[in-house]
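User: Quick sanity check before I run a bigger batch. Here is a single chain. Can you write out its predicted 3D structure?
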Amino acid sequence: MSDPLIQKAARDIMFKRGVSAVYESVDGCTTIPDCLVRVDHETLLRPDGADYEIPTFGITIQALFEDVGIPMRGDEFDIDGSVYRVERIDSNDRVFVKVVVNEH
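Assistant: Done. Predicted structure follows.
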C-alpha cells in the first residue's frame, strides 16, 4: 500500500483534472458509481512486447489504483454515456493505473 500522503496528493490531482466515471468489472461483481478518471484520446501506443513506439494513437484512461485495483480486459468505464472497454494495462505504479481502452 502506498504512503497516505501520496494517495491524498493523487486524489487531489484527480479532483482537479479528472472526470467522474462509473467503473464496472467484466464479471459484474464490482461497480464503482463515482470514480475519478483522466481520459486521453491521443496517446501514442506501443504494441505489447515492443521496445519501440510506432505512430499508432489510441485512447487511455488513468484511474486511482485504490479505487479500481487492477482492471481486467473487458472491464468498462462509462463517462457521460460513452462506454470505454479495457483492452490492456499500459502502466501501474500502485498509485495510478493507466489502461488502453476502446470506445463502444
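The chain has a mean pLDDT of 91.

User: Great, the batch can go ahead then.
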